[in-house]
């Protein structure tokens, strides 16, 4: 059993969860993820590691409530336990001195991009953090990210804060203004897709952190297979980060929708049990 | 050989002599093989309850009487771990079921499992004298299962004697049959044993792969409880190589290692459309159903697609398990697509028979060449080609060759690819000192099961590629002996 140290509602529908897992905290690197089961009957779901503390022995993730598992997680509190928490999984982000790097984070990726921003900055890059939100009230970790980056930009789709528009448009502006050596995107699939489309004509290497459906997270099942160029890769062991210009996005979108009907059924059943 | 002398000693015992004399050989040969009761096919395809129900006590004794107690028993030679088969069978004939179970456990620590999943027809039962004489071997597997179940169900499982603590720590990586066996052996010798398992439940293939209808989980759980009661520590959710490497564990004081990480990497055919929605690897499909209990969705949260026209590619035990699972989850057509003919199928004979009874369709000499999807990337059909058998290949089986122009389409909404697994690459990747072979299998000295790294041993599927439970256990026993010796010499 793993103990929950903290669970906090950051902004509507997005929560933070901090778990006692000293072994994982000892080993983890930016870009890696964990697999978590909210309860004995739950699903194994992957969550990116958004922060960790070696001294405290804790791992922090940020998640968006979309279905049964994330719903269940959002109802847990400090002191509760979860039956399964395994990691760190996946390959770490490539951290090097690239020059000027734009780190794009949206949704849960606002949290998950944080360790990458920090590590890139430490390596001497000029780090521009670009955060995508629908509206200002959905922004979190602003101070934390600002401190870790050289430049911090928020783009809001309703114009309530910072750049007025969708993050890929803000990204395009940036590219036209200055020389960008690399782009890294963490967040929902559509944001990663759109950012990759944006940078493609400029041939700027763009890394995306893919989020296909997973089961074991150790390369044993192949649920997470994604097509990268001509090759099929297992995102849990070969990724989760891949070159956004080589990803077969159509396939990824389709594979993520595999269980759509079941997911709705599962959520309805769970909600019934709550009443 | 010492082993042989032991069998001989048992054979010469007075009670054995008397028992042999009590029924004439001719009479023994007249007794028909006892048929194990099983659930009716129409019933059992509605749920996941175990198909076989086990012999009754009377049946077991009757079956034991069939055994001629040969002076030179061939069955033992067919058993990869050399169980003293005649002795345990004769103990059954005497009604000493618990003693019979203990006898088996001297060499095989998981009889309730092996009795259910070993391919007896190509091992002990193949060599049985009665098979040669009458064509019908003694039901050794069913008897093994019977005594193990009897011992467990009557609560007569004793914790064996544990040697005084040696203070040495051993790390076992992977909790499949290989790892469980090593753990059981080394704890008895007084070492401090910890099993590290990547998944959230121990058991390896026995928990995530082999379905409930063939190996009920409570049987595996009883074995795991038994290890825990002996003092084995099991740490789940721990991926060696990621959560900690072998080097890290060394620093924590572990002095010897056993790698039993299995053949977990699913093979695909690399044909068009394999990533369509609706195409599964057998590992994913079976893991969802067995480990995550998707057959009880939505009571359990993990979903699995319930295909109506399901094609399972392959002809081994994994394919049989997948296709029979699909049938139980409501498939109207559950089909095996196999590129060779029935004679070459590697699955256990009993599984093939059960599958046939359950209405599974078999398409032999057929191979898929591409999968076809609709505009939403969902599988709707597959194209196959007919095959013919040519010259024998390296495995001794005749090589299947595609017949030109024989392509045809089949409507399917789900495919399960069960064409084999490769050794799990995680440990070799994170511990480069460990030498691997051409197929990614860890190389060992077959006498001692030691890898190229001192103090690190390996066995089971990670060494052999996809093999069997009993071979994994055999490796585990040998490795345990070497590890014990290594630790004692080190002192
Ligand atoms: C490497 C990786 C890192 C991720 N990091 C985060 C993170 O830090 N924060 C976060 O909120 N989300 C993250 N995700 C996505 C997260 O795993 C899913 O949102 C979660 O599994 C949904 O589960 P659910 O039961 O709540 O919803 P469900 O009802 O099961 O599904 C809702 C939607 O989530 C997607 N989904 C379902 N199951 C999975 C699964 N096992 N793996 C991936 N996607 C799935 C599906 O596309 C589905 O449409 C990550 C995914 C991956 C692969
Ligand atoms: C569906 C199916 C049906 C089968 N049916 C039969 C049958 O009827 N009869 C028969 O004899 N054989 C059968 N087999 C084969 C048999 O199950 C295997 O040969 C046997 O389980 C191998 O045992 P093992 O201990 O080597 O590995 P496994 O049982 O594969 O166990 C390996 C374990 O190691 C864990 N692991 C892997 N990497 C790590 C790591 N880095 N850190 C920690 N843990 C790790 C895995 O999660 C797994 O639990 C079947 C196999 C399958 C898949
Ligand atoms: S999640 Fe199973 S192989 Fe990647």
Structural summary, described in words:
The complex is a heterodimer of chains A (275) and B (491). The longest helix of chain A is centred in the last third of the chain and has 15 residues, at 260-274. Chain A has 2 domains: 2-89, Translation factors (Elongation Factor Tu (Ef-tu), domain 3); 100-209, Nucleotide-binding domain of ferredoxin-NADP reductase (FNR) module (Rossmann fold), CATH 3.40.50.80. Chain A has 10 helices and 17 strands. In chain A, helix 6 packs parallel to helix 7 (189-199). The model of chain A has no long low-confidence stretch (mean pLDDT 94). The two termini of chain A are 27 Å apart. Chain A is 30% helix and 32% strand. In chain B, helix 7 (85-93) runs antiparallel to helix 8 (97-105) and helix 8 packs across helix 12 (140-153). In chain B, helix 19 links the parallel strand 8 (333-337) and strand 9. In chain B, the strands form 4 sheets. Chain B has a 5-stranded parallel beta sheet with strand order 3-2-1-4-16. Chain B has a 5-stranded parallel beta sheet with strand order 6-14-7-8-9. In chain B, strands 10, 11, 12 and 13 form a 4-stranded antiparallel beta sheet that branches. Chain B is an alpha/beta fold and 491 residues long. Chain B has helices spanning 2-11, 14-22, 25-30, 41-44, 57-66, 75-78, 85-93, 97-105, 111-117, 124-127, 129-134, 140-153, 177-188, 205-208, 217-230, 246-251, 282-291, 317-328, 349-357, 426-430, 461-464, 469-490, and strands at residues 169-173, 192-196, 233-235, 254-259, 265-266, 279-281, 309-313, 333-337, 361-363, 366-373, 379-392, 398-402, 408-411, 414-417, 421-422, 456-458. Chain B folds into 3 domains: 12-153, Alpha-helical ferredoxin (Fumarate Reductase Iron-sulfur Protein, Chain B, domain 2), CATH 1.10.1060; 169-262 and 427-489, FAD/NAD(P)-binding domain, CATH 3.50.50.60; 268-419, FAD/NAD(P)-binding domain, CATH 3.50.50. The site of one flavin-adenine dinucleotide (FAD) has 24 residues of chain A, from strand 4, strand 6 and helix 2.
